[in-house]
Amino acid sequence: MPFFLPILLQTLDPEIEAVMRHSRQRKQEERAAAADNAAAAETAKAKAAAGTPERDDGRIPVPAKFAGPFQACLDAATQSPDEGVSFAQKWRIDGGSFYARHCMGFAYARAERWTPAVVAFEQAAEEAERGNEMAQSARLWAQAGNAALAGGDVAKARTDFDAALARGLPDGLEKGEVHLDRARALVALGEVDAARDSLDVALVQAPKDPLGWLLSATLARRSGDLKLAQAHIARAVQLSPDDASVALEEGNVAVLSDHADIARSAWQRAVRLSPDSPSGKAASDNLSRLPADKPAG
Question: Cα–Cα distances in Å, from 280 out to 34, 190, 233, 253, 283?
Answer without folding.
Answer: 33, 25, 17, 16, 5
